[in-house]
Design goal:
12 helices; 7 strands; alpha/beta; single chain
Length: 296
């Protein structure tokens, strides 16, 4: 196992800027990737759920990765390679490898409630692409739970090197460390950042740095560095926003916060619909409060 682990640190699951006709604005996306790195983030994760990969054409998915690599370099880019078929996910992993990326993020099979044998087969197939794979455990959306025992098995068979943990169950961190001490735990939900950082997380696949990179990176560094006084204060200030990362409307929420701070968040593609007025008011007020507190 190499010491070079490009999935460590703060990797932002990037929101995707769309123009008024809902076409991908690659110029704005390149600028956004560069801005995130300039503001302390370690890299980006294009083609994740926050990047609306499910509603992109294959050509768009390909160009999004190429745009990110051209903007900040392949070692800083960890594309999502989720697909309904294992062969398709492997092709996305090969495309990322050939574009110069050094790791990819992979959901389990999510077209149906896959059993353990299917999950093992899926990750083994994608691992054949020869690029390190970070598993993404999101049992809420996929209905497939990568429990610690299964993750340890996947790691033991050389299929994964890390896991983005989005179950919300912070107790799993300790069991995972016992079963697979060399498997890197990555924070997968913004609103359990402090708890998972204290439990030994090595990175954060993050949502809200899209809008507030400096303060959220400061929060992460303080948390993993053991500066609890700083971390607890920032966590309390930011949590009214961070919790939206775990809600159904997380893409719309983060894009709205981007708009409020002067970035380009903009619209989402259907079937996502605009926020309800009360949701928008809550997010806007929380974002404005963060700006007023100097967190933008």
């Amino acid at each position: 196992m190499t010491d070079h682990r490009p999935w460590r640190g703060v990797l932002v699951a990037t929101a995707l800027p769309l123009d008024d006709d809902l076409r991908v604005d690659h110029g704005k996306y390149a600028e956004h990737c560069a801005w995130l790195v300039e503001n302390g983030c370690d890299g980006v994760v294009p083609n994740g759920s926050l990047g609306e990969y499910q509603v992109l054409t294959p050509e768009e998915r390909t160009k999004v990765v190429q745009t990110a690599v051209a903007a900040i370099g392949g070692s800083r880019v960890m594309p999502g390679v989720a697909a309904y078929g294992s062969a398709e996910s492997r092709r996305w992993a090969e495309q990322a490898r050939d574009a110069g990326c050094e790791s990819v993020m992979l959901l389990p099979p999510n077209a149906y409630r896959a059993d353990e044998r299917s999950v093992l087969s899926h990750y083994a197939e994608v691992a054949k692409a020869g690029i390190p794979v970070v598993a993404y455990n999101n049992p809420i959306d996929t209905k497939v739970d990568l429990v610690p025992e299964l993750l340890a098995k996947l790691h033991g068979e050389g299929c994964i090197q890390a896991v983005k943990e989005f179950s919300g169950d912070v107790r799993r961190a300790y069991q995972l460390a016992e079963l697979a001490p060399e498997l890197d735990l990555l924070i997968g939900a913004d609103d359990v950042l402090l708890e998972l950082a204290l439990a030994g997380a090595k990175g954060w696949v993050a949502g809200y740095p899209n809008a507030l990179p400096r303060s959220t990176v400061e929060l992460y560094r303080a948390a993993v560095g053991g500066d609890l006084a700083t971390a607890k204060q920032l966590y309390a200030q930011l949590h009214p926003l961070l919790r939206w990362d775990s809600k159904v409307e997380f893409v719309q929420a983060i894009k709205l916060s981007m708009d409020v701070v002067g970035r380009h968040g903009g619209r989402c593609r259907p079937p996502r619909v605009p926020l309800l007025p009360e949701q928008e008011a809550t997010i806007r007020a929380a974002t404005e409060k963060a700006v007023a507190a100097g967190l933008a």
